[in-house]
Amino acid sequence: MEVTKLICIGCPKGCNMTVEHSGKVIDKILDYGCKIGLEYAKNEFAEPKRIITTTVKIKAGELPFVPVKTKDPVNKEKIFAVMKEISKLEIDSPVKVGDVVISDIAGTGVDIVCTRNIKKVS
Ligand code: SF4
Description:
- The chain is built from two helices and ten strands.
- It is an alpha+beta fold.
- The strands form three sheets. The protein has a five-stranded mixed β-sheet with strand order 8-5-6-10-9. The chain has a three-stranded antiparallel β-sheet with strand order 1-2-3, covered by helices on one side. Strands 4-7 form a two-stranded antiparallel ribbon.
- The protein starts with a strand and ends in an 8-residue tail after the last strand.
- Helix content is 17%, strand content 37%.
- The chain has helices at 35-46, 79-87, and strands at 2-7, 16-22, 25-30, 49-50, 53-59, 65-70, 74-75, 90-92, 100-102, 112-114.
């Protein structure tokens, strides 16, 4: 049996959890404070995912970049591909919070959305 330590990110308490496993198969999850941690440990062990936040160039905006994020978490293995695709983007202003910058980024099925309003300047 192997042991993997995880820190839950579900709340500020940050429970230090222990996953006992045999390779890919979980035997037991210990030291979680609630169901959120239990689900987090299962997901993190089986298929770790992350929300990605970054910026995208914007044409004629009041700022040169608009902050964006993935609408949903993406598989950790896809982060590099997602960032590479985002780095090539330049979008038109204006934009609003929630506007989709690009759909199905890097074949993940996840959209990239704006997290700030940016006005157009002449
Ligand atoms: S397991 Fe529950 S109590 Fe512990 S850090 Fe996660 S969300 Fe918070």
